[in-house]
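Continuing the series of single-chain predictions for the mutant panel. This is the parent chain; the variants come on the following pages.
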Amino acid sequence: MRTRTLLRWLLLVQAACALLFAWALVGGGTIASWPLALAAGALIVLVVRMLITANNFLMTARFSSATPANFQLAAGARLKLFAEEFIATLLQSSWFMARASARERIYDNRTYPPVLLLHGYGCNSGYWSHLTPLLDAGGISHASLDLEPMLGAIDDYVPLVERAVATLCAKTNAPKVVIIAHSMGGLVARAYMRAHGEARVAHIFTLGTPHFGTSLASKGIGLNAAQMRRSGGPDAPECDWLRELGASETPARRALITSIFTHHDNIVAPQTSSVLPGARSIEFGGIGHVAMGRNPRILNRLMQELADLFTP
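Parent structure:
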């Protein structure tokens, strides 16, 4: 089943649950008005989804790396962090990704290489709904991919990436592409370089990628989740697949990677799993995992990094 189809089914299930709650409230005499009961049913579903987001933060707390002093958050900032991540999760899964399909935009732009966008686990190309308008505004050619099957092995996505890179290079007359990848997508990008080398890679930006695995992957299903697992707490080693991937990389290949991560990631734990030796790291705080794809600080920094790399 495609990710978009699954998300639509989940929306239908949530709508059915809201109706069921409303029917129970009216039938039990708690609320007499159907419109009010439907609003209450929808609110109950939202609260359940809010609790799921809260649970993600609670689960990562057990395995989190130490937060540097300059990234410590006050109570108000923590509330903002949670609210932004909840809204991002809600809107991305229930609106943008549920409606999305892979896209391609080609512009006559000789300044910037074309950009290939790779999403993370359980997502699709709709994840990039807030970055693509910025690329459009800059006249930067780009394409997104739906990495399917959703629960497949990371290496199985490599042929999709190879074809997309070749297509972007051919359509733009560019020798290389920039890859911007969120979460698991960053591992897909590295697996692509292991299989095909870095000849067609100008640079790779990874956002919240668990380069050394995440303890929460043990809760996930699928071959790809297994390839992102760690065997224990914050100091536990990465799984064999990640270790072999790292062993395949030269210093020159690592130098092509910039890892952007947040010390308050609620999916990647420990958060320092995103620090890849030999690659450049850019740290943020007060931003959750899903929110990285729509947070203005992250997106503005990405666009600035592109300008710094490729503007004469």
